[in-house]
Every structure is written in structure tokens, then in C-alpha cells.
Amino acid sequence: MDADDLAVCLRTWRDRLSPAEVGLPASSRRRAAGLRREEVAQLAGLSVDYLARLEQGRASAPSPSVLGPLARALRLSDDERSHLFRVAGLVPPGAGQIDRHITPSIQRVLDRLADVPVMVVDAAWQLIAKNALASALLGDNDTNILRRHFSGEPSPIVRTPEEVAKMEEGWVADLHLAAGRYPDDGPLHELIADLRAMSPRFAALWEQRPVAEHVADRKTINHPEVGPITVDCDVLTVAGSDLRLVVYTAPPGSPDARALALLGAIGTQTF
Question: Which segments constitute the HTH cro/C1-type domain (predicted)?
Fold first, then answer.
């Protein structure tokens, strides 16, 4: 690891970003162009102290779980993200591993779809990012979607037992497909092992060896402030990427569309 090179890269990439590029308000009080260290730390989910140590060459061996969010916060290209991993002494994700990097163009799509809830998930259904309306609709739980369901955590989504069974079968089939595509992805296979250990239902489905891609569905979210909202849920694969956009929409002019608009007006507070 070249701590000095890593430090220079992080500072340079931070300085080239404007607040507007990451959805932050501009301020006339800024002394220089670029983002403040505190802003990047917030976007990446890191402490300001730890980011300061990285930028000053005083921190050693940052993990992939640190570098991935940093690459997203700094809007790095694929080549820049690979360089970030290399100067940190790590091998960039390659063949056989899920690429969880959000490119600047996908981030712009997420930023601009402000009037519909949108999430970005990877091939293992790990939440990578979501917009403000998705947080308002579904809450701020950022764990893996499958882990949350099979562990029995409460969910605002209303389903019949038959719908739950169909959804579980689809998830497991999709995860089998991912396991075949990404044989060297550690987090994916750790997730599968955890799910098999925690959930007899998942374990039984897994042994049936289903293989299929997840399909779109329709679901009702029982929101504590605006009531039930029924939406179409479409899962869009990003070409050339291991990411998916999960988009929730309702027919224009429908009560559900009006409920989504109301939710957007209320704001992004957690209920």
C-alpha cells in the first residue's frame, strides 16, 4: 500500500467535485472549490477523523467496505475505482466477483428520479443506494433485503401467504443464479451460508436448486403516515454492471400516485 499516493488521490478527487454534483447546496462561504472533508465522510458513511487520517497518509489497510463507499461518494469512474483499490494494496473486484460500484452516470440517474422511489441493489440483493423518496416509503434500513426478510424482521410490505411463498422462491432462484455467476465473491457466499443457518425455509428452498432471474411484481406498502400505497415494482438490470435499479411507480392520477406525491411533500423523515 502506498499511503501517500492514496492520500493524494483522495484529496484530489474530493477537490474536483462541486456540491451540486452530489446533491448538496452551494455556499458562498466556501474558501475553495470542491467538497469539504465532512461532506465526503457523510456521503461515504465514514467518520471525519478516519477520512482525515486516510487523506493525510496516517491510516493503513482500508478495507473494501471502506473503499467502495468512498468510490461512490467521490463519483469515481471504473478505472479510477480500480486505481483506488490498487494504491490501497487491494485487488480490484474482477471476474467471479460482484462489481458493486455505482458509476457517475448511474448516480445521476438516481439523483434525477426524484419523483419515484428508486433503490440500487447488487446481484446479492444488498442495498447499495436509494433516493430520498425510497427512504421515505420503505424506511432507512440498509441491510441486505433477503437477510432482512428471512431473519423475520418486520416489513411494511403487505403480502398474502401465497405471495410470500412466491417471492421467497423467486429470491432463492435468483440467488442461485448469482452464486453460479460469481463463484469467487466472498460476501455473496457468506450471505448464503448465513441464510441457510438462520432460516429453515431458505435452507429447504436452497436445496431444491431453483435457478431463475427475479421478475417484476406488484406490492402494497402500509405506510404509517399516508396509509397503504400499492405500487408496481420493476427491477431494471444496468447493462455492463452487476447492479439493478428497483423502481416503484403508480399509474398517473391514481390514489397511489397521489399518496406517493404526498409522501414526497411530507419529506424524508423516518417514521
Answer: 30-81
